Records
---
Amino acid sequence: MSTAKMIFHGSDIEKICEVYQLKPEEIVKFGANVNPLGLSEHVKEQLAGRLDILSSYPDRDYTSLRSIISEYCNIPVEFILPGNGSSELIALLIQERNPKHTLILGPTYSEYSRELSFSGSTQEYYHLREEDNFVLDVDDFCRTLDGKYDFLILCNPNNPTSSAISINNLRRIVSFCNERNIFVMIDETYVEFAPDINEITAVSLTREFTNLMILRGVSKFYAAPGMRLGYGITGNLEFLKKMKEKQVPW
Ligand SMILES: Cc1ncc(COP(=O)(O)O)c(C=O)c1O
């Protein structure tokens, strides 16, 4: 069978087995960047001991979940919007923001571009360069941003380069965008893999700026993509409320 034109996601095990005539146990997975250490034993025990919760609908406001996330991120509980993985929140944020001109820091996760293609936004990439070790030149980046865009997408640390922007540089970028009415989406799906989260997370900036939302989840570091749990963090409570209104309940 010719595989030249087959395009599928690296975590689509059923498809890979079919195309390459393999059994699932013959595959070593590198396609989804999920922590190879797997789900923690503690999480397994807690889940196994509480299976009866599947028989009831969850609290629509996720009060207890949001309070745990608030403690984990050291951020007010009202800044948090849980979602069906960060994927749901990427889609919802773009839909609600409805940008006209988007700049994406690349090369990066292709889902941003796919979601943007459903909106009316133009999309352009500012590419990190291998010869710079994928380190961002913030001055040049801000010059590019100036005057042309109303939406910026950053993945930090970035998939696939694994390079990260420091909190000081993030503050410069978000502040620059704030003065120019550019909303910033920062995908921190991989942030827990960083040697020091505090060096690169933009969570503290949500207390200072309302032009940003951070997205996180448990799929990668906590090895739980099947749980479909992500969360957004923003100090822009009006925007968060609008996103929540559009969300499918539960
Ligand atoms: C950068 C990035 N963001 C988001 C996602 C989607 O994660 P989730 O399982 O939380 O929807 C992925 C998955 O590959 C990713 O690489």
---
Amino acid sequence: MTVRPAVPDDLDAVVASAVGLFAEDAGTRDPLMDVSWPVREGHEYYGSAITDPDVLCLVAVSGDQVIGHLIGRLKRPNPTRPTVVGAELESVRVDPAHRGSGIGAELDAAFVEWARGRGVTEVSVHAFASNTSAIRFYEAHGYVPSSLQLNRDIT
Ligand SMILES: CC(C)(COP(=O)(O)OP(=O)(O)OC[C@H]1O[C@@H](n2cnc3c(N)ncnc32)[C@H](O)[C@@H]1OP(=O)(O)O)[C@@H](O)C(=O)NCCC(=O)NCCS
């Protein structure tokens, strides 16, 4: 297994991994989530991510199979936290058959190395509160819970 930056030829596999992530994560946790978004828009969105210098698009590869992906993105400066240079771990997924063998850890380590190389001082990730296994994964890698978003339906 190797972790490497995605190239344009990986686009279909990155989109497929994102489709899987939406279906498994947001699709089971947020009834308002449009899980068909990556099917419709994924090629354009992730195609741009692969070539954007402010975005890290990684794939985990076994043989010629993509078995995981990670998207990381530099954040815009926030004047209310002027000393922070931030990057967001926007999405990460490992194929179910390959979980629990350190691939997620390798993807996260490569993201942190990329971020440090760009002067980033703080990396962040959003997770559904009910995604306890992903939260356990992040906490094991030094991420600490910060803000809590509360949604209220006012229809
Ligand atoms: C979170 C995820 C990327 C971790 O990848 P991974 O390759 O399984 O991670 P590692 O092997 O490096 O670490 C395993 C740890 O991840 C956590 N984990 C989360 N979901 C897991 C799963 N389904 N199977 C095994 N471990 C899982 C465990 O805490 C485990 O720690 P442990 O070994 O102490 O039990 C992966 O489980 C995944 O794709 N989950 C579904 C998608 C998702 O929720 N993404 C995050 C959205 S915020």
